[in-house]
Amino acid sequence: MEKVLVVSEKPSVGRDIARVLNCKTKGEGCLIGSKYIVTWAVGHLVTLWEPEEYNPIYKKWRFDTLPIIPEVMKIKPIEDTKKQFEILKKLMNREDISSLICATDAGREGELIFRYTYEAAGCNKPFNRLWISSMTDQAIKEGFESIKPGSEYDNLYYSAKCRSEADWLVGMNASRAYTLKYNVLLSVGRVQTPTLAIITERQKEIDNFVPKDYFEVISEFDGFKGTWFDKETKETKIMDIKKAQDISNKVKGNNGKVVSVENNKKKQVPPLLYDLTELQRDCNKKFGFSAQKTLDIIQNLYEKRKMVTYPRTDSRYLSHDMVNKVKNTIAKLNMGPYKEFSAKLLSMKKLPFTKRIIDDSKVTDHHAIIPTDVKPNIESLTKDEFKAYDLIVKRFMCVFYPNYEYTITKITSEVCGEQFLTRGKTILKLGWMEFYKSDSKAKKEDEEDELPKLKKNDEVEIKETEVQQKKTKPPSTYNEASLLSAMENAGRFVEDEELREQLKEGGIGTPATRAAIIERLISVGYIKRKGKTLQPTDKGMKLIEIVPPELKSPETTGRWEKGLTSIAKGKMASQRFMQSIQRYVRYIIQESAKVNRAIVFEAGNKNKLNPNKKTVEALGKCPLCQSGDILENSKAYYCTNWKAGCKFTSWKNSLAAYSIEINNELMKTLLKERILNNVFGVKPNTKEKTVYTLKMNNYGAILIKEQ
């Protein structure tokens, strides 16, 4: 009997799909049912060829062999996950498999994972596409009931393929060119370098900033305070201390009158629902989470907990067909910490679905991130998972609440010809701010002194005055929240107004990749975390000095991201995009030949500069890049090519729960043999002694299995 092969992106997702499809029989790397066989990748199984695979001449880095632009870019199985690839290949080409279903993540990278695997396996059987936005059983069932032809997603694949090949061409060629010209390992990328440029440009502004002293005159009236301001410019800053003191002395102890009282009624509409970038910003501002940590948490809430919808979205709206699902979700949230809010919404005759909530034209591949319509198991969440989930739930419900309304009162007083401004705030209706009234920032904004009831021409007396000395402040150092905003709004760095409008859709990277870009810049030593801020290193500052404007321009990258989006929408041919990338690569190689002799990078191997320094022992060759050596530091074992992007890392404390010490001898053995039997340890839960087998993958992760 013929069967349909379902290919998911991860084992955990595959098991969920298999349960819904009633595939219970275990096979090699798959679960089998009467109609379906469900298998899975483990992320990317296939990658692009290395340069030397096209021609051995490229094995050695030489400037005269650049640029490397293959006529056709080829793919191959990733060595570290080749076993799983072979399982998929065998399944795809089985005679009893009549067709396939692509069930990888419903996005650009998920599409690439399936298509590359399908192509590398030499499969030509028809396939359909499962496209879902949540991992609940009901969503999976509904997805299989409305399965779509794979051809409908061809443009998404072309976009993903262009992204993959463009990053390879730019990164490979630019990194080799600048490494060779400056004799130090330099990682240059299509997306990472413009992101670095944003950070370094801000650092230059901070470094060049010269603080200036200024003064403000604060007056104390009966029951309220006022700040002096210039009648013409409305400026409160006084640059001359003598002038400030003269004003202070002039008005102290004198009477004046109220010149005007203004009461301006204000309102704030509820915020939009979350997309990934906005959620990452809020998690960073409120909890200090990195963008990557937030993504990992939300991905877990989506895949394993089934409590939120698809996270890697750039939309902040819902589609009109979700109205009933939204009502069901609110009903499921009528519990625990959300009962008060959900009960109020459920009591409404009709939920206020405005254009700020439902807008089909602004829903792309996925709608905004919202809770799923299953009863949430809040008790099962970790502390950090609850923090993120709580934000999503509150945002989801607050959009249906009324506006936040308040009055801003401005009192202008005049004493001896000098004017003073007093501001106050009166809340009229909390509205959607009910959800955030306990937030420290919201509390601070609303805790303003209550102002006395004054009217025009009332007499006032200044009892005391104070001259406050202050300093002008430089621009703020980027943190992850502000950097994510800068990456999302790359167009604001562009001077050309027309192009700036065009780039509104073309930020740097995508919601799914921005976290990885930040982590990449840290791993190659171009930026560092300092507290909650992100600061460029000396190496990062120098790299931006030597690359041409086009390589560090947010404008260039924004145009490319806009182009990739156009390809996905079927509005641009992929060939046209790749031709522009190839022209760009040739230009980069030409520009890299113009070496800036004023820029000197610190030598990669410091021991060559200091022959008396003790030589660090290399424990073996790196299994990932196969050219670097593995060294140790206080916390981990790492590759000497880490600055060029090699991600091999083996943490010394990774097996601490098993009472296994990772030392140099153990590492040498694993690097040589890749597997080590008869290692004594304990069971983490019971502390009972047992024996393990250790196995190390190419990235340095040590897998442990009880013998």
Automatic annotation (TrEMBL):
Keyword entries, A-Z: DNA-binding, Isomerase, Magnesium, Metal-binding, Topoisomerase
Gene3D superfamilies the record matches: 3.40.50.140, Topoisomerase I, domain 2 (1.10.460.10), Topoisomerase I, domain 3 (2.70.20.10), Topoisomerase I, domain 4 (1.10.290.10)
EC number: 5.6.2.1
Every Toprim domain range: 3-136
InterPro entries per UniProt: Topo_IA (IPR000380), Topo_IA_2 (IPR003601), Topo_IA_AS (IPR023406), Topo_IA_cen (IPR013497), Topo_IA_cen_sub1 (IPR013824), Topo_IA_cen_sub2 (IPR013825), Topo_IA_cen_sub3 (IPR013826), Topo_IA_core_domain (IPR023405)
Catalysed reaction equations from the record: ATP-independent breakage of single-stranded DNA, followed by passage and rejoining
NCBIfam families: PRK07726.1, topB
Protein's recorded name: DNA topoisomerase
